[in-house]
What does this fold into?
Amino acid sequence: GAGVSQSPSNKVTEKGKDVELRCDPISGHTALYWYRQSLGQGLEFLIYFQGNSAPDKSGLPSDRFSAERTGGSVSTLTIQRTQQEDSAVYLCASSLRASGTFGFFGPGTRLTVL
Amino acid sequence: AQRVTQPEKLLSVFKGAPVELKCNYSYSGSPELFWYVQYSRQRLQLLLRHISRESIKGFTADLNKGETSFHLKKPFAQEEDSAMYYCALKMSSGGSNYKLTFGKGTLLTVNP
It folds into this structure.
């Protein structure tokens, strides 16, 4: 595809359930970033991948959050035992190298925890 | 601490009026700053970066190191400028890796 894609676009879950969010970066982009967007908090950095490794995971809010990337391509963000405060839009972005800058984010996954 | 501050959550102007969205930063190194925009029901996208010294859609932003600011300006606002605007600072993520730290955003509304 031409841009970063994410799935699902919307996810409603019950408190305590686990969820998986997927990001498909632009083909050939080695760097991949996850951010969380919520009202009043703006965009919060979660984790960054270079290839399949994550040199910076400093933004993950708790050990309930984890992420992996396979084949230097698709990444999955997993939230275990979801809480209501996890409700937010989860955004993904990719770049050709670890320059830290990118033109477009993915469309995001809107997570609602009831 | 390294951070980006956007003091205004909301900004409302009339069409044709000048607009300035404020951004201040705190960073120990040489800063590289950006403005991102998100129009309604669209993806967040890069608007401009300070190193390019460009004007996009009539917007400009000048890095002022003395005031540690990177305000976004447009002399005559248009209704289609209504959007959420985020200021971002490029920071080291360890080694030669970098990430962006964002402010909390300013929602601009341009009224007819």
